[in-house]
Amino acid sequence: MLVTATALLLSAATAAHAGSASGGSNYYDGKNPATTKDSSGVYCNVNASQIATRPITDRSTGQQVATLQIFYSWSCQSNWIRVTGNPYGGNTTKNIFSSLGGWNSESDSGYGSSYSMMVYAPGTTQINGEVTLWSPGINEYNWKARGSFAL
After folding, report:
1. 113 φ/ψ angles, rounded to the nearest 5 degrees
2. Alpha carbons 56 and 147: distance in angstroms, whole number
3. How far is CA 8 from CA 5, 56, 151, in A?
4. Model-level pTM?
5. How far apart are the C-alpha atoms of 21 and 32, rounded to whole Å?
6. 2-8+24-150: which CATH number, 3.40.710, 3.90.1150, 2.60.40, 1.10.10?
């Protein structure tokens, strides 16, 4: 599943969450945590917790240049990732996968922070993912930094 999902071609991003693809059979797979509500009408991001962080390191220097944060919504039982501190300004490609088969892969451009859509992963469901930061402009296909996680 991971290989199949990773092989998908991402759309060029022109705005936040502009290039996105997702799959899975649960309602929450591929949904926005800030605009999706749980069964009681509460937005998924309202009762979420950051459950882990990982460094995003420059491929040339090995130094941390940004942070990958992993969040869990208690009411929606779903995870998503957020990238903070992107210093390059090119595309940020975010991939997140659940052992239940849900996945999300998207790319958006710009400096600073961005987040992925959700994957349904209740309780101790395993999740993993990867973030790649790209240089802008003529070097668009030259990746600059990468971070990953498996929980």
Report:
1. -125, 160
2. 4
3. 6, 22, 23
4. 0.83
5. 12
6. 2.60.40
The residue behind tokens 């009681």 is 40
pLDDT of 74-89, one tens digit each?
999 999 999 999 999 9
Q: Which residues make Cβ contacts (< 8 Å) with residue 127, sequence separation at least 6?
A: 70, 79, 96, 97, 98, 99, 119, 121, 149, 150, 151
Here the tokens at position 19 are 């290039």
What does the alpha-carbon distance between residue 5 and residue 142 come to, in Å, rounded to a whole number?
21
List, as one string, the DSSP characters of the chain. -HHHHHTSPPPPPSSTT-EEEEE-SSTTTT--TTT-B-TTS-BTTTTEEEEEEEEEEETTT--EEEEEEEEEETTTTEEEEEEEEE-S-SEEEEEEEETTS-EEEEEEESSEEEE---EE--TT--EEEEEEEE--GGGTT-EEEEEEEE-
Banded pLDDT at 139 (limits 50, 70, 90) = low
